[in-house]
Amino acid sequence: MATSAGKPPAEACYMLIHQSLDVETPNLQILKRNLERGTDDIKVEALQQIISGTVQGENYDQLLMHVIRFVMPTRNKALKKLLLFYWEVCPKYAADGTLKQETILICNALRNDLQHPNEYIRGATLRFLCKLREAEIIEPLIGPTRECLEHRHAYVRKNAVIAVAAIHRCLPHLIPDAPELMSSFLAAEADMTCRRNALAMLTASAPAAAVHWLKENAQLVASFDELLQLAVIDLIRRCARDFAAEKTLFVRCIFELLGAPASAVKYEAATSLVGLTTNPAAVKAAAACYIALAAKESDNNVKIIVLERLDQLRTRHEGILDDLVMDLLRVLSTPDLGVRRKALAIVMKLASRRNVNDVIAMLRKELSKTVTSAGDQQQDKSSDYRLLLIQTIHTCAGEFPEVAADVVDLFLDSISEFGASSATDAIIFVREVAEKFPGLRQNIIKHLVSSFLDFKTGKVIRGALWILGEYAESGAEIRDVWTKLREAIGELPLLAAEQRELESAKESGEAGDKPYEPTVAVSASRRVLPDGTYATESALTASASASAALKLDTKPPLRAVLLHSDFFTGTVLASTLAKLVLRFARLEGESSEQLNSLRAEAVLIMAGVIRVGQSTF
Fold first, then answer.
1. What is the mean pLDDT of residues 92-109?
2. Which residues have C-beta within 8 Å of that of residue 352, sequence separation ≥ 6?
3. Residue spans of beta strands (DSSP E) within 533-580
4. How many angstroms separate the CA atoms of 348 and 355, rounded?
5. Taking a C-beta distance cutoff of 8 angstroms, is the pair 200, 231 a contact?
6. What pLDDT, on a 0 to 100 scale, did the predictor assign at position 374?
7. What is the pLDDT of residue 28?
8. What is the pLDDT of residue 465?
9. pLDDT: is 24 or 94 the higher one?
10. In 3D, which of 495, 502, 469 has the Cα closest to residue 484?
11. Mean of the per-residue pLDDT values for the chain?
C-alpha cells in the first residue's frame, strides 16, 4: 500500500464491529467526562465505546491521555482487561511516523503489571505482549518477561513462555538467546503445560535443540501428560525429514505413544507412524490402534473419522490388514447404523478366503441378535441393522462361493423371523444361489418346503414359488412341493369355501340376536383445485358383506395373500403349478393317474383364483 513520505503506513483492519443505527456515536466531551468522573461501571462502558469506535475508524486520539490518567491506575480487573484491548487498537504513532510520547507511560504501566503480585494480571499482560509488534515498547519489557519464567505460579510461567516465543518469532533481535533460554527452562521445569509450551517454541525456532531434548528424555515419553505427548508427536512430524538419522528414535517414541491412555495421542501417534515408515508391523500397529479407538470411543463422529482413516490405510497397504478383520468386527457393538455400515464396508474389503468363514460366523451371531431384540424402537433399529447384515452376507457369499451353502442354510432357517425387506433380500439371495450352484438346489427345495407356511409377505411367497417351480426336478420333490402348496392354499374350491364360511358367520350372528352390519371405512385425501387451492375429498366406502367376515390372519398364508387381492402372486402360483405339472408329465408319462389328479387340481386352483378376482372377496 502506497503512503506519503514521512507518514506511517495505514494499518489493515481485520475486525468489524456491528453498531446499531439507532445508537448515537458518543462525542469526545461525553467520553472525557465519563472517564474523568465516572464510576468503574461507567468507565467500562466508556472504554468499550472507545474501543469499538477506534476499530470502526473513529478518531479518538485526544482520549489517549485521559485513558492513561483516569483508567490506567484502576484496580478493577474487568477494566484492566479492557485496557489491554485498548492498548492493542489505539494509535501509537504520530503523524510523522514516530512513536508517540505517551507510549512511555503505557510501557511503564505494562512493566508494573508484569511485576504485579497478582498472577492473573501478570498472565494477562504476558498474553498481551504476544500481540505487540512495536520494538520500542517491547524492549524495556524484556527483563520483566524473563523474570516471569521463574515465577512461583505455573500460570505465569506458561504465559511467559508464550510471550518469549512470540517476541522471538517477530523480533528475534530482542531475545537472541531465546532457544538457549527455553532449553534451560525445559530442563528445570516440572509443570507439564509449561514444558509443552517450551517444547513447541523450540520445535518452531530451534528444532535441533528440541531433538536433543527428546533424545535425553526418550525413556520418559510414556509418562508425559497428554499435552506434552502431543507436542512430542508434533516435533517428530516436523523434524522427521530434516533429521533422518534419528528415525529409529522417532519410531520408538511413536510406538510407545500408541499405548497412551489419551485417545487424541493414540490417533495422532498412529497417523504419524504410517507417515514415518511403511514397515508392515508398523502399519498393523497403527491399524490396530485405529480399530481400538473406533471400538472404544463413544462419539459416533470420531468413530466414522477413525474408520475413514483405516480405510485409507487399507487402500495404501493392500493385503497387510487382512488379519485384523475380526478385531474390526468388534466395532459392530456400537448402536449407530452409520458406524456399522462403514465398518461392514471395510470388513468386506478385508475379507479373503483365509478369513471369510470367521467373518460369516461373526455376522451370523450378529444376525441372531437382531432377531431376538425386543421393544418397538429397538425392533425398528434391529430391522435396519438386520437388512444391512443380510446385504453384507449376500455380497460376501457372492464373492466367495465356498460359503454360499452355509449362508443359504442360515437364511432359510431364519427367513420366517425376518421383516419384509430383510426377508425379500434373503429370498433373492437364495434364488441366485440356486441358479449358480446346482448342487445346492435339493437342499434349498427341502428347506423351502419345510418353511413355506411361515412366509407371510407376497414378495417372499412369490420368490419361493418361483424357486420351487423352477428347480423341483424329481418326482418326489414335485409331490412334496404340491402337498405343501395345497396346504398353503387351504380348502378348494376357493370361492365356494369362502361363501360357506360367510354364510356360517351370518347364521351365528342371527343366532346371537346381533344383526350383521358391514364395516365402514372412511378415506380422505387432499386435492388441488384449478385455482391452486387445496380441498379435502372424502369417500365413504362400505365394504362388501363378503369381505367383512374374512379373517385373513387365521387363514393359510398363500390363501390370505390371494384373498387380499394380490393377484400378481396368483399369476406366479399359476406359472409354478404349470411348470410342476409339465415336469411331472415328462418324468412319469402321460398315462399316470397321479398326473391327471395334479392337472385337475391345478385347473381348479387357477379357476378359483380367477373367480375370487371377479367376486367381492
1. 84
2. 322
3. 534-542
4. 11
5. yes
6. 46
7. 85
8. 92
9. 94
10. 469
11. 84
Element (H, E) at 578: helix 567-588
Cα 18 from chain centroid (whole Å):
37
- Report how far residue 254's alpha carbon sits from residue 221's, in angstroms, rounded to the nearest whole number: 9
Cα–Cα distance measured from residue 344 to residue 394, given in angstroms and rounded to the nearest whole number? 12
Which H or E run includes 520?
strand 520-528
* Burial class of residue 304 (count of CB atoms within 10 Å of its CB; 0-12, 13-18, 19+): middle
Please check the confidence at residue 2 and state whether its pLDDT lies above 70: no
Mean pLDDT of 389-404: 86
pLDDT at 15 (0 to 100)? 60
Which residue in 235, 225, 310, 238 sits closest to 267, CA to CA?
A: 310
Please tell me the distance from the alpha carbon of residue 306 to that of residue 292, in angstroms, as a whole number: 10
Helix, strand, coil: what percent of the chain each, to 5? 70, 5, 25
What are the two backbone dihedrals, phi and then psi, of residue 537, each rounded to the nearest 5 degrees? -110, 125
Q: How far apart are CA 534 and CA 529, in angstroms?
A: 6
Lowest mean pLDDT among 169-178, 409-418, 468-477, 500-509: 500-509
pTM of the model: 0.74
CA distances from 164 to 50, 83, 179, 197, 441 (A): 30, 22, 10, 10, 79
How far apart CA 132 and CA 124 sit, in angstroms, is 13
pLDDT band, residue 503 (cuts 50/70/90)? confident
Question: Nine-digit cell at 423?
Answer: 426377508
Q: What's the length of the chain? A: 617
Q: Is the peptide bond before 493 cis (omega within 30 degrees of 0)?
A: yes
Kindly list the distances between the CA atom of residue 105 and the CA atoms of 87, 108, 112, 298, 548, in Å, as whole numbers in the listed order: 11, 5, 11, 54, 98
Least Cα distance to 230 among 184, 272, 274, 186 occurs for 272
Q: Which is higher by pLDDT, 25 or 449?
A: 449
CB 177 within 8 A of CB 212: no
DSSP alpha helix (H) spans, 351-403: 356-372, 376-399
**Phi/psi of residue 520, nearest 5 degrees:** -120, 130
pLDDT higher than threshold 50 for residue 224: yes
CA 430, CA 209: separation in Å to the nearest integer? 67
The pLDDT tens digits for 373-388 are 544 455 556 788 888 9
